[in-house]
Amino acid sequence: MGKTTLSQALAKVFGLEYSRIQFTSDLLPADVRQYDAHAWSEVWLEDRGWIRIDPTAAVAPGRIEYGSQFVFQEDENFLEGEVFSMLKYRGASALINDLILRMEMVDYAWNRFVLNYDQGMQFALFSRLFDRVSKEKILFTIIAVIFIFIGVMAWFVMRKPTSKPQYPANALYLKFCRFLSDNRISRQPGETPVHYSQRVAAVQPQWEGSVAEITAIYMDLAFGRNSHASRDEKIERLKQAIRKFRVMN
To answer: Is residue 227's pLDDT more than 80?
Structure first.
């Protein structure tokens, strides 16, 4: 009611005629769709003034009073192909009406500020950011944005990855592999522990028993089903086997 009264008052101030217009909650006009649109021509006659010439005849009073959607909702074919159209449910509740209007406001803002973002809007943005717009300020802003972007990218590339805590058995086995690598028997990429132990035994036959024992304990820890108590016991056995191997070699 308040919006209608305000619209009538504005029409009187500017000497205009008023007819019902639907506004959103912040007085932004709603979309006018194809089923709402109606156009006609008017001609000026000296003795009669402006005369309406409408080949489609007069518009139904209900369409003017309530809008096209309320008139067409009685038609079974109204928005038949629009399964997800919220307009089919307008008038069902105040919540749905408010949701529809807010969706239209978002669509209006997208079309205005994103799709229609041209040189004039760019200049207006710089004018709000700076008191006076100049080529030097624009150039400085562009350079600053480029440096900030490069700095962010450099930080992502050069930062150290966070180290994830290793499973104790994996940490012990990798430590054992580093010891073998120091003795010029490096583990190859993708090489399984079993194949690695066989290759180590082929190079150093005297290590065959110790390496096979360490590999067997690790494989049992990594892929076997162990209770918490047995896992702790086997990890301790793995530590002792690796320590004994390093002391003796």
So the answer is: no
Indicate if 110 and 123 belong to the same structural domain: no
Compute the C-alpha angle 40/46/48, nearest 5°: 60
89 and 185: one domain? no
Note down the domain range covering 151: 119-158
What's the gap between Cα 118 and its chain centre?
A: 25
Pair 10, 96 in one domain = yes
**Shared domain check, 123 and 111:** no
Beta strands 49-53 and 41-45: pairing type?
A: antiparallel
Averaged pLDDT of the chain: 76
Whether residue 20 is found in the same domain as residue 109: yes
Does 163 reside within a domain?
A: no
What Rg, from alpha-carbon coordinates, does the chain have? 40
**Cβ 222 vs Cβ 170: under 8 Å:** yes
> Residues 39-87: pLDDT tens digits?
667 888 888 888 877 666 555 665 555 555 555 555 656 666 665 566 6
Q: What is the pLDDT of residue 86?
A: 60
How many folded domains does the chain comprise? 3
The structure tokens listed for 39 are 């156009």
Q: pTM for this one? A: 0.37
* Residue in the block written with tokens 């390093």: 246
> If 0-12 CB within 10 Å is exposed, 13-18 middle and 19+ buried, where does residue 179 land?
middle
207-224 burial, b for 16+ CB within 10 Å, e for fewer?
Answer: beebbebbbebbbbbeee
Note whether residue 191 is domain-resident.
yes
Question: Looking at residues 111-131, what average pLDDT do you find?
Answer: 74
